[in-house]
């Protein structure tokens, strides 16, 4: 038996938002105009291609008084009420006046449980009692959700009224409900009908297991991206007759910009992959709001925010070894020359905290056929992998906790906090330092790195309170 719930209520009270949240479906239309939903639409939540439960998004009540009058005029006793509701649907199925009522009652008549949604930020009104009485007449298991859409709070009024008609009443913020909130509602569903208890308990277990799998897949994706970024280079052939002066600042800058763009594109692709893991395929990132710190990957302020502090860099030991040596080298037939500030101008006065004034290695390479190639990269700044991880961690936190009723862009706008990665436990940081070193040498252990990053993604860190993120 697959538990099925008809989500019903007055127009524009957040029914579609609740369905989108509990079905994890960003495709469900959500609007502020009453009547956005005109047909009853079933939405399945699948885990491992198995349906865990079904939510039916329905239109809102339009003529509750007329429906109740019709029912009361024909009722002889309480025992005939469920059948009378079914008779009303059969008789009025083609009657445009009762289109919305028939659409919302059909799944209930067919055996769905009732999830009644009200807006707890608006005062309770007696007109809602007409709807609640009709739903009571169906005899179906019923639960009410007080959806908190605005700022005011009339939930106590609503609870006192709803308790008279519904077995379970819960306050539920559809737009901001996190994973734990959603699981709590499912557990409450299981109390509505004994027949649903076992399948819904199994659904909760499946969702919790799926959440762990998503975290692991995300960690693997982030490990792969960081390992790839640590060895990225950009190259361009030099003219055969060029002397040392031909290795111009302009060419150096062009390759540096290409390297930056390539890394940024890889980061964006990694983010999209993580979003897909959490069933977000059309989510976009919102630009930083005015007055807040710009989050472009290579901005100095972002590095100060996402990466390690100088103290933690030294303690962790990443300044030495594979990630050390941020200076610019150019090698040509055994001769060495310095190629100017290059990317150093981008980082301005960041100084030694970034591992020198330059971001990436620069080399002139000889080729077998006598040609020469200018190479920029890989990035050797000690804080680089930590900045990538900090940004990926914040993004994962936002995406994994975000429910599918929210349609505005994810904001990575930041406060004035500093050194996000300093919050990692020492042992985790040291382990990651070793993995980053191996990856920079071109020998990543993706399996082991994934296991450590999985720990990072699961950290609450003083976490939610420390995360320097303002969600919209």
Word description of this protein:
This protein is α/β, with parallel strands linked by helices. The chain has two domains: 4-192, P-loop containing nucleotide triphosphate hydrolases (Rossmann fold), CATH 3.40.50; 210-466, no CATH class. The chain has helices at residues 15-23, 64-74, 81-92, 99-109, 127-138, 155-162, 179-190, 194-229, 249-277, 300-306, 310-316, 344-347, 384-401, 426-440, 446-458, 463-466, and strands spanning 4-9, 41-47, 50-57, 113-119, 142-147, 168-172, 234-238, 285-286, 331-332, 335-336, 360-366, 372-379, 410-411. Strands 2-3-1-4-5-6 form a six-stranded mixed sheet, with helices on both faces. Strands 7-12-11 form a three-stranded antiparallel sheet. Strand 11 (360-366) and strand 12 form a beta hairpin. Helix 8 (194-229) runs antiparallel to helix 9, helix 9 (249-277) runs parallel beside helix 13 and helix 14 packs antiparallel against helix 15. The protein is elongated. The two termini are 39 Å apart.
| Total number of helices | 16
The description of the largest β-sheet is: 6 strands, mixed
Mean pLDDT across all amino acids? 78
Number of domains: 2
**Could you spell the SSE succession in H and E letters?**
EHEEHHHEHEHEHHEHEHHEEHEEHEHHH
What is the radius of gyration? 29 Å
First-residue to last-residue Cα separation: 39 Å
Helical proportion?
40-55%
């Amino acid at each position: 038996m697959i538990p099925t719930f008809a989500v019903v209520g007055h127009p524009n009270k957040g029914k579609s938002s609740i369905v989108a949240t509990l079905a994890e479906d960003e495709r469900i239309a959500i609007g502020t105009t009453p009547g956005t939903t005109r047909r009853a639409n079933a939405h399945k939540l699948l885990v491992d291609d198995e349906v865990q439960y079904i939510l039916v998004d329905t239109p809102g009540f339009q003529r509750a008084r007329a429906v109740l009058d019709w029912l009361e005029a024909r009722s002889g006793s309480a025992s005939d009420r469920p059948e009378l509701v079914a008779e009303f649907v059969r008789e009025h199925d083609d009657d445009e006046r009762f289109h919305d009522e028939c659409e919302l009652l059909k799944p209930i008549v067919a055996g769905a449980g009732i999830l009644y949604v009200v807006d707890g930020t608006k005062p309770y009104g007696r007109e809602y009692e007409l709807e609640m009485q009709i739903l009571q007449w169906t005899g179906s298991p019923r639960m009410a959700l007080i959806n908190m859409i605005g700022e005011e709070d009339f939930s106590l009024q609503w609870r006192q009224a709803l308790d008279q008609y519904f077995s379970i009443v819960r306050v539920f913020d559809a737009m901001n409900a996190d994973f734990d909130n959603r699981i709590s509602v499912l557990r409450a569903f299981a109390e509505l009908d004994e027949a649903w208890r076992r399948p819904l308990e199994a659904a909760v277990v499946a969702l919790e297991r799926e959440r762990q799998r998503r975290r692991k897949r995300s960690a693997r994706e982030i490990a792969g991206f960081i390992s790839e970024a640590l060895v990225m280079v950009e190259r361009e052939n030099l003219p055969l007759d060029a002397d040392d002066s031909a290795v111009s600042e302009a060419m150096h800058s062009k390759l540096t910009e290409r390297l930056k763009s390539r890394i940024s594109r890889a980061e964006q692709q990694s983010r999209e992959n993580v979003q897909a893991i959490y069933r977000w395929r059309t989510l976009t990132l919102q630009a930083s709001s005015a007055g807040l710190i710009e989050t472009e990957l290579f901005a100095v302020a972002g590095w100060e925010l996402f990466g390690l502090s100088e103290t933690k860099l030294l303690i962790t030991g990443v300044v030495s070894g594979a990630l050390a040596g941020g200076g610019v080298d150019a090698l040509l037939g055994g001769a060495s020359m310095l190629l100017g500030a290059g990317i150093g101008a981008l980082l301005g006065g960041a100084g030694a905290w970034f591992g020198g004034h330059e971001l990436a290695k620069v080399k002139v390479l000889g080729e077998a056929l006598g040609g020469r190639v200018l190479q920029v990269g890989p990035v050797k700044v000690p804080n680089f992998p930590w900045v990538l991880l900090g940004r990926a961690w914040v993004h994962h936190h936002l995406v994994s906790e975000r429910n599918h009723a929210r349609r505005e862009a994810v904001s990575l706008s930041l406060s004035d906090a500093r050194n996000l990665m300093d919050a990692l436990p020492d042992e985790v940081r040291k382990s990651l330092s070793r993995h980053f070193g191996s990856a920079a040498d071109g020998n990543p252990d993706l399996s082991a790195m994934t296991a450590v990053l999985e720990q990072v993604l699961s950290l609450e860190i003083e976490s939610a309170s420390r995360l320097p993120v303002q969600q919209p």
